[in-house]
Each structure stands twice: as structure tokens, then as C-alpha cells.
Write a structure and sequence with these properties.
heterotrimer; A mainly alpha (about 210); B alpha/beta (about 400); C alpha/beta (about 280); A: about 210 residues; mainly alpha; about 80% helix; B: about 400 residues; alpha/beta; Rossmann fold; 6-stranded parallel β-sheet; 4-stranded antiparallel β-sheet
């Protein structure tokens, strides 16, 4: 029963969602929304588990004086400060939470995102080698799009942006659509396997 | 004589004055009403909104001849043709349809539409009687039902054939062939295996596909006695992954080697998670990194950092925008549906392989439909594409 | 190790340094490359330009801190355009981080254009639920947002009094960095309720929306900081988007140069090893 119960629940929940898609009449029509809402509530409470796990691990690191335990102090202090100020003083503009969010979280997130510029450069340098015909095509297309998508490209040749647009709108869009069709079929196939209990690894590990 | 002329003059004057005073005989322009300053909307019709759960009526009308100058259209509803109508909404000029979602099923209603210009309002004649109802099947999705049925039958058929022992050919997928060797590499080097199941939650099918593969990787890691580290971005993924890894270690006969602290939560924040994983990579220098699941912009940051520490990287995602980054930075990449095929491919179980074959045949049918659709559309026959569109 | 090998195996930190200089120097010393407007941005501009003054549009801020540098300039440009046309934006967010960014953009543009809250624009705030909220807006804005971001009932806000649902807004604009985002708005607002949808997104996400542009499901799209710069060109206001274009141009050129150098050393190395094999 320990293995059958989750499979039955999975089947019923999945079947309910499918029914909700095809049958607008109540109670089926609102099944999707209800189950999605239940899921959001469960996920929100599960966040407590995550935070608990984080606190437990880093407290243990501090206790054991593991390498880098100083950063665990920083993590726990940041977690406590944001939570405390947010809950007690609110999160509107003008509060301490808002100040920390604007002046610490936003710059740090933007900085991490901006690392992409550097990593794109190093990845391109390493990976864009014309080892064979396909790699050469990728290389040429990449260069044309990179130059065509900035004002410099228009300055070099007025048709560069059109070439870049054509590459993005025709072969790129065609390839993306083909991949998306394959993905959609993969999703349906995987979902069927899960609903019918053919795929059970997520429950049992085997 | 003088008296007669005076009398005649008086009579003529009186006749003229009274002619002005008395109503004139009706003339053509008296029979016609003056032009209204605002013309009313015309041909107001109302029908039950199809393919819904009831409670909705669509009201349509032909816009007023004064439309460019109209301020708005007011929609009125009443339950009796001769009874009171009340305003239930208004729309911008130029609009010719309104969906009323405030009705009760089975109750009869009448609608009228009024053109408004300043203080002047001009109302249409009421519509015919209408009542809303809920439908048991959304006909706009018929093509989807047929596709689902056909696809499911295909998958069932090939699973049946696989059960019968028919050998099913599946092409080689290099990324999946390399999984065992990648874990073996970690054993030889005495370093860990880092598994990143993406940044989405358990409601994303890619995450489910990823944790399924995690089960198989965990079993191999237990057999090879390799340290497996799984930092996650979502709490539900953490609990699921912990259960799976625990069961996999037990299945491999190594329940003692399982440590729940190896599968831990970092943060829900996208780039906070990327920073945390990068830190783990730089400190631990894993021999093997698996990047399987749903990723967004952090994909290249993770992949490049993994490359910089000398790890062998096997990535897989169904996010088309991230595939180029993984292809450029990783040793092996599972593209789109290969991620969903991984579980079947690694296990070699006939039931799972059968579903893969069904999926492939489904793709073949789609390719045929695309080709047929292109030819038909070119010839101006749009029935097929119209049928296939769902709402 | 030969010269070609040294170049091929160059420390990536040198690449990072050169890229950093390629970005910083043009920011400090602007060059002023002319910006050509792409069709998708022009279509979005025309969609707003064609609206009569007094029209209401729905603007959803669905992005976070990491994509703020790319998407915030777009929102500034679009808000300026709206206010100058007399179009009244109704602001909302499906991402919690989106609303503070919206408020910052409003702070700047409202002061510039002399607009009044409640008369010229409204801020409904953040609502969790993604697609559920989008569907609720189709029935009634008050159902999804009983009060605005400041606790005022919608019925007390002048600009919201004639807005019941999607029927009363001319277009939906979504500033999107992920999910829920543009695909969801297309599915619900455009697909179910027939409302035109336009958008702004990160440069890396823009290609995935081209099929929607081609199919007419999106009326226009701004992609990345370049999209913002193009829109600024159309409204004749140079701001954050345009300022970044010089740096982006030089950085792209530097990356292309690195690729060319990398390939040159690769072929040089191959030719040299073939030559050595031939002579040995």
C-alpha cells in the first residue's frame, strides 16, 4: 500500500487535471485552478522546510568550525535581519527591509547576471572553433548576429541588421519550433508514464 | 362700395393672420422626424458563450453610425422585454462585443445597447431572449482530444509490443552513454559528483524528469562509493530528492552511505542559487557535474564555472534559449526531449522504451501534419489548420 | 608552448579584463553610435502611437532584480511615451519584485511629465497567482485587485471607474523575465480575450518570442537593452538604454575579435602540426 497509494493519488490528480481541460462544466472546470492553488499552499509551507534545512546545516558548520564557517555567520545574520525587519517593520519603501533589498539584493543580483557578459566571451572564445562544417556555420551565424544586433553593425553595413534578423527569424525560429515540438511530445510521454505508474523512480528510487 | 372694400381688406388681413396662426397642412418634412444627434447601435444579438462553465452571455451589435463621435457604448440587461433594464457595463467606441459574466444559468435575459455622446443617449431595440448554460465538452479542444487519444494509443501499443519481447531500436545518445563513465571518473579521481536538478519546482515536468535521472545516478554513485552532492533551489525538490536518493542507496545495498545533508536547500533566488552552486564548484572541484532540468539565465554561469574547475559536464534541458549555452560550455548536452528519454534509456526497461517509440511515432505524425498543412494552406485550403487550432 | 598555443590557451581572466575595459571605456567616453530601429520595436511604438488620448493600457511588471538593468530602461521609455500621448497606464505585477521597479519608474516619469495618481495612472500592486490572476482580470479587475497598491478601492480611483475588465483597456504590455510572463499573457489575454499584447524581455529570451511576432500574437517586442535604446530613439529621449549601446557595440566587437583570433590560432596550430607530421 505504501507504493500503491502515491500511484493512485498521482493518477487521480493527473486525470482530474485532464478532465478539467476538456470539460468546462463544474466541478471539472475549476479543478485545475483548485489543484494549482493547493499546490501553491503546499509549496509555501514547504519553504519552512527549506529554511529549516539551511539553518540546521549552517549552525552545524559553525559548531564544527568547518572550513569557511565565517560565511555561515554572514548567511544566518542576513537571513535573520531580512526576516526580522520585514516582519516587524514592513516592506514598503522607506523601511529597513526595503533599503536592504534595493541597496544589497538588487545590486548583487544584477552583478551575478552581468557575469554572463564575461562568461559569454570566454565560452565563445573556447567553443566557437571551425572544427567541421557545422561548427563553421555556427561560428559564421554567431558572428553575423552579434555584429548585426548592435549599432556598430549598422554602421559597418546597413544590411547587417537585416541579415541578423533573417537568421533569427528564419533558421533560428524554425529550429526552436522543431525543438519545442519534440519537447512537447516528450512532456506528454513523460506525463503519461507518470500518470499510469510506468515511471516510478520519483517515488521509489528504482 | 367703400364699406365693401374695407370689409374685404379686413377679411384678407384676417385670413393672412389666421393662416399664420393656424397649423399648416402637414408637409413632407413635417412627417419625417429630425435626424438624431446620435444613432443607436443596431442588430443587437445575444448568445450563450459556448464551451464554458456557464454564467456568461456574449452580446454583439453593429456599431452606431455615429461611432467616431460616440463616447462609449453602455450595455443594458433586463429579465423582461417590457421591464426595467439596468446598465451592466460599458465599452470603448468601435467595440461591437461584450461578454456578460454576471448571469445565472437557465434564467432568461434581454439585452440592449446604448450609444452615449455626452448627455445624449440613443438605445437600440432589445435582443431576443437568451439564457446561459454550462457545456460538458469544450469543442474548441476536439483536435487536442484526438491528438491525446492517438498519442496515448501509440504509446500503449508500443508498450504492449515491448512487453511481448519485441526488440525496440533506440538510437545512441552520447550524453547518456557517458553517465556511467562520468561517475567512474569521479571514483578514480576521489572527487565528488555534483547534481543540479534545475531551478524550478516539482510542478515543472523537467524537474520531475531530472529527479528521475537523479535516482539512477544516485544508485550508480552508491555502487561506486562516490560522494553525491545535490544542492537545490526549491524546498519540495529537496524533500523529493532526499527520498529518491535514500531509496536508491538502499536499492544499491548502501543505506549506511546515505547522508541527508548532501541534499540540501540553498535559496529560491535565481542568482543567489547560481552564486551558491558556483561557490560549491570552486571549493569542492567535483569531477562530474550534472546540469539536468529547467534553467534560465544562470545556465551559462553554472556551466562555465564547472568547466573552469575541470569537471566533466553532462547537461540537459528543455529550455530552447539555454541549449546553446550548454552546447558551448558542456561536454555533453541532452537536447529537449532527450532529457525526457533519459530515464527510459538508462534503465533499458521495455515498458519505458515502448513509450519512447510511441513518442517517436507521434513526432512522425506531427511531421506529416505539418507537411500536409503547408501544402493545403498554400492551396488556400485552411480547414485543417482551422481544425487544429485550439483555444 | 608555441605562440599560437599560448594564445589558444590564454587565461580567461585576460579575456574578462579586456571585455571589462571594452564596456567601461565607452560608458565613460560615449561614442554615440546611431541606433537603427527594428521592425518589432517600431510595431510596438506604432501600437501605442495609434491609441487616442485617454485610452487605458495594462502594464505588468514581471521581472526581478537580476534583469532590472535590461528591462527597467524599457519601462521608462514606454511610460514616457504613454504620458506624452495622454494614454493612461494601469500598473500591476505578477512578480513581487516587479512593483518596486514599477514605482521607481513611475517616480521618474510622473515627475517629468507632471502626471497625477488616480487621474493619469493607477498602480494595482502585486498579486500572486500568475495565470489565475490573468483569467480573473478577464472577468473583473476588481475581482483580481479589490484595492490598489495603496489600499484604495478601485471604485474610488477616477481612472479605474470606466475599467471593468480587458474590454476597457486597449492593449496589454508585459515586461517579462521568465514565468509568468509573455507566453502566459499571450495565452490568456490575447488567446482567450482577444486583447493585443506587446512586451519587453531580456535579449537572451527575445528569439523565443519571434514565432509569436510572426504569427501576430504579439503586436511588438523590445528585446534587451537595445530594444530600450530603439524605443528611446523613437520617442526622441536618450536615457539608460541608449547610454549602454556604445558599450554593447564595442563589447560585441571585442568578442568577435576573440573568436577570430581563437580560430586563427586553431588553424595555425593544425597547419603547424600537419607540417611537423609531414617533416618527421
Amino acid at each position: 500500500m505504501k507504493r500503491q497509494a502515491p500511484l493512485i493519488i498521482t493518477f487521480l490528480a493527473g486525470f482530474a487535471m485532464i478532465l478539467g481541460y476538456f470539460i468546462p462544466h463544474e466541478p471539472f472546470g475549476s479543478l485545475q485552478q483548485i489543484l494549482n492553488t493547493w499546490y501553491m499552499v503546499v509549496a509555501a509551507f514547504a519553504m519552512i522546510l527549506g529554511v529549516g534545512n539551511l539553518v540546521k546545516l549552517h549552525s552545524a558548520k559553525i559548531r564544527r568550525r568547518s572550513p569557511g564557517f565565517g560565511y555561515s555567520y554572514v548567511l544566518l545574520a542576513g537571513l535573520a535581519a531580512m526576516a526580522l525587519f520585514g516582519i516587524t517593520r514592513g516592506i514598503e519603501p522607506g523601511t529597513v527591509f526595503y533599503w536592504m533589498w534595493w541597496n544589497m539584493h538588487v545590486p548583487m543580483s544584477s552583478t551575478m547576471f552581468s557575469l554572463l557578459a564575461f562568461f559569454v566571451a570566454s565560452a565563445s572564445y573556447r567553443a566557437f572553433r571551425a572544427r567541421n562544417v557545422e561548427a563553421a556555420l555556427l561560428l559564421i551565424a554567431g558572428i553575423l548576429v552579434m555584429i548585426g544586433r548592435v549599432p556598430l553593425g549598422d554602421m559597418i553595413w546597413s544590411r547587417f541588421p537585416d541579415v541578423a534578423d533573417w537568421i533569427m527569424n528564419v533558421p533560428n525560429a524554425a529550429g526552436q519550433r522543431a525543438i519545442l515540438i519534440g519537447i512537447a511530445l516528450g512532456v506528454v510521454s513523460t506525463s503519461l508514464r507518470l500518470l499510469l505508474g510506468i515511471e516510478r523512480t520519483y517515488l521509489t528510487g528504482d | 362700395m367703400r364699406l365693401f372694400l374695407i370689409t374685404l381688406s379686413v377679411f384678407c388681413v384676417c385670413a393672412v393672420v389666421s393662416a399664420d396662426a393656424q397649423p399648416r397642412s402637414p408637409q413632407i418634412f413635417d412627417l419625417v422626424e429630425p435626424f438624431p444627434s446620435v444613432f443607436p447601435p443596431e442588430q443587437v444579438s445575444a448568445r450563450d458563450l459556448p464551451n464554458d462553465a456557464g454564467g456568461s452571455v456574449t452580446v454583439s451589435w453593429r456599431i452606431s453610425r455615429s461611432d467616431p463621435e460616440v463616447d462609449a457604448y453602455e450595455i443594458l440587461r433586463g429579465q423582461e422585454l417590457e421591464g426595467d433594464f439596468s446598465v451592466i457595463g460599458s465599452v470603448e467606441p468601435g467595440t461591437c462585443e461584450f461578454i456578460d459574466t454576471g448571469v445565472s444559468d437557465g434564467v432568461s435575459y434581454f439585452y440592449a445597447v446604448r450609444a452615449v455622446k455626452g448627455e445624449v443617449k440613443s438605445e437600440s431595440t432589445p435582443s431576443a431572449e437568451v439564457s446561459s448554460s454550462a457545456q460538458w465538452f469544450n469543442r474548441n479542444r476536439t483536435s487536442m482530444l484526438i491528438a491525446l487519444a492517438v498519442f496515448s494509443l501509440l504509446v500503449m501499443w508500443f508498450i504492449y509490443r515491448a512487453k511481448k519481447g519485441v526488440e525496440l531500436f533506440i538510437r545512441k545518445i552520447s550524453g547518456l552513454e557517458a553517465v556511467d563513465d562520468a561517475i567512474g571518473r569521479a571514483t578514480e579521481m576521489g572527487r565528488s559528483v555534483l547534481y543540479i536538478p534545475g531551478i524550478m519546482d516539482m510542478d515543472d515536468i523537467q524537474t520531475i524528469a531530472s529527479v528521475v535521472i537523479l535516482g539512477r545516478v544516485a544508485k550508480k554513485a552508491a555502487e561506486y562509493d562516490v560522494h553525491l552532492h545535490v544542492p537545490v533551489s526549491k524546498s519540495l525538490v529537496m524533500t523529493t530528492a532526499q527520498e529518491i536518493v535514500k531509496e536508491s542507496f538502499s536499492a544499491a545495498g548502501r543505506p549506511d552511505a546515505y547522508n541527508p545533508d548532501n541534499i540540501h536547500y540553498l535559496t529560491d533566488d535565481q542568482f543567489g542559487y547560481a552564486a551558491g552552486v558556483d561557490g560549491i564548484m570552486v571549493r569542492e572541484r567535483p569531477a562530474t557535474v550534472f546540469l539536468l532540468g529547467a534553467f534560465y539565465a544562470e545556465s551559462l554561469i553554472l556551466a562555465e564555472t564547472g568547466h573552469s574547475v575541470g569537471s566533466i559536464q553532462i547537461a540537459g534541458t528543455a529550455m530552447p534559449a539555454q541549449l546553446p549555452f550548454f552546447v558551448a560550455a558542456c561536454d555533453y548536452t541532452l537536447i529537449g526531449e532527450e532529457l525526457f528519454a533519459a530515464s527510459a534509456y538508462l534503465s533499458k526497461e521495455p515498458l519505458l522504451l515502448g513509450s519512447l517509440k510511441g513518442q517517436d511515432w507521434g513526432k512522425a505524425i506531427f511531421m506529416f501534419l505539418i507537411g500536409a498543412g503547408v501544402i493545403l494552406e498554400t492551396l488556400g485550403i485552411i480547414n485543417l489548420s482551422r481544425f487544429l487550432v485550439t483555444r | 608552448m608555441g605562440f599560437a598555443d599560448r594564445i589558444r590557451e590564454i587565461d580567461r581572466r585576460i579575456i574578462f579584463l579586456v571585455v571589462a575595459l571594452a564596456i567601461i571605456i565607452p560608458l565613460l567616453i560615449p561614442i554615440g553610435f546611431p541606433i537603427q530601429v527594428s521592425p518589432s520595436v517600431r510595431d510596438l511604438y506604432n501600437a501605442l502611437e495609434s491609441l487616442p488620448p485617454g485610452s487605458k493600457i495594462l502594464m505588468s511588471f514581471d521581472y526581478g532584480a537580476s534583469t532590472y538593468p535590461e528591462i527597467y530602461p524599457m519601462s521608462l521609455a514606454l511610460l514616457r511615451h504613454c504620458f506624452r500621448r495622454g494614454v493612461k497606464p494601469i500598473i500591476m505585477g505578477l512578480w513581487p519584485e516587479g512593483i518596486p521597479f514599477a514605482e521607481r519608474a513611475l517616480q521618474v516619469t510622473v515627475e517629468e511629465e507632471g502626471k497625477v495618481y488616480g487621474e493619469d495612472y493607477a498602480n494595482l500592486g502585486f498579486k500572486a497567482g500568475g495565470i489565475v490572476v490573468m483569467q480573473a482580470l478577464g472577468r473583473s479587475f476588481e475581482e483580481a485587485f479589490p484595492v490598489d497598491a495603496y489600499g484604495t478601492p478601485l471604485s474610488d480611483i477616477p481612472v479605474m471607474q470606466s475599467v471593468r475588465n480587458y474590454d476597457n483597456v486597449a492593449i496589454v504590455i508585459d515586461f517579462s523575465a521568465g514565468d509568468p510572463g509573455i507566453p502566459a499573457w499571450i495565452m490568456i489575454a490575447q488567446g482567450r480575450f482577444g486583447k493585443p499584447v506587446g512586451g519587453g524581455c531580456t535579449a537572451v529570451s527575445a528569439p523565443q518570442f519571434f514565432p509569436y511576432l510572426q504569427a501576430g500574437q504579439l503586436v511588438g517586442l523590445m528585446g534587451g537593452m537595445k530594444g530600450a535604446a530603439e524605443y528611446e530613439t523613437l520617442i526622441r529621449t536618450r536615457d539608460l538604454g541608449s547610454a549602454g549601446m556604445d558599450a554593447q557595440s564595442i563589447a560585441h566587437a571585442v568578442i568577435v575579435l576573440f573568436i577570430v583570433i581563437g580560430n586563427a590560432t586553431f588553424f595555425l596550430g593544425r597547419w603547424s602540426s600537419r607540417r611537423n607530421k609531414g617533416t618527421s
